[in-house]
Amino acid sequence: MSNDNQNIENQTTSNPNSTALPEKKPSPFLTEQLPQGTAQGQQQTLAQNSTASNQNIPHYNLPRGANTGNVGETTHFGFKTINTEEKAQKVAEVFHSVASKYDLMNDLMSLGIHRLWKRYAIHLSGVRRGQQVLDIAGGTGDLAKVFSREVGETGHVVLSDINESMLNVGRDRLLDAGCTNVDFVLANAETLEPFADNSFDLVTISFGLRNVTDKDAALQAMFRVLKPGGRLLILEFSKPVFEPFSKLYDLYSFTALPLMGKIIANDSESYRYLAESIRMHPDQRTLKGMMENAGFKNCDYHNLTGGIVAVHRGFKL
């Protein structure tokens, strides 16, 4: 690992007048051509007999989910109970809304500590030159940028996300930074359908697993695409280990976060959902058990900031 991981930093958005980069070679990880369709974030044309109110509801074209039957007819969206088939759309709406302010809000909400969490996760990843890395729900590309540098010209990184608005921000940042060994792929974590079995040395997902509807299916898909000997790294909000601290954290999450979301991003509801989704996410021991059920071995976790965040690791042996 290099010692300059502190370079995980805010990047400027892409300059539309900048010189185009050379055409890249096709990704070696894709087993099939990606489906074509209306880009996520663009409103779809509804049937003529739709009501006027329905025409104002955005619809996002998302990669297909797993439909394994692991999840029942209803699931949670924050503290709300909704039809399972609706969750992906609602999560897409949240991240389409917050994409442009995502990095700024991360700095404000965590007081910049999220950079230390990510730096520690990268240290635990053990990434080396020449390796193949898949960063799932990679969003604005903080981890993928560092992985791009660490694997070097002989390695390769795939930044994937189910949300095109987030993926566009990450793509602009990494291309501006000269990361020419990175592919950008829309993919659903529940299936990771574009990717072949046994493709990657390292799979990571950072602050994204809690938004996945079928987490068991996602863990099984991550196991599938890892090479034997490869490792999974999950960085996610978790459960504080000290009860008094947990109560203070709840107070902060459900008062300060929506308020900052309203002031900075003009969207308090999305940040209320993000706070609720953290509380609904499995705790450290439960997630470790889910990883083991998916086939991972030697699973462990490391609590950060009193358990607000945990880094989970598992290996495909």
TrEMBL record:
GO molecular function (one): demethylmenaquinone methyltransferase activity
Group of enzyme by EC: transferase
Keywords: Menaquinone biosynthesis, Methyltransferase, S-adenosyl-L-methionine, Transferase, Ubiquinone biosynthesis
Binding locations of S-adenosyl-L-methionine: T140, D161, N188, A189, S206
Domain of life: Bacteria
HAMAP family (UniProt xref): MenG_UbiE_methyltr (MF_01813)
The family this protein is said to belong to: Belongs to the class I-like SAM-binding methyltransferase superfamily. MenG/UbiE family.
The name this protein goes by in its record: Ubiquinone/menaquinone biosynthesis C-methyltransferase UbiE
Biological classification of the source: Bacteria, Pseudomonadati, Pseudomonadota, Gammaproteobacteria, Moraxellales
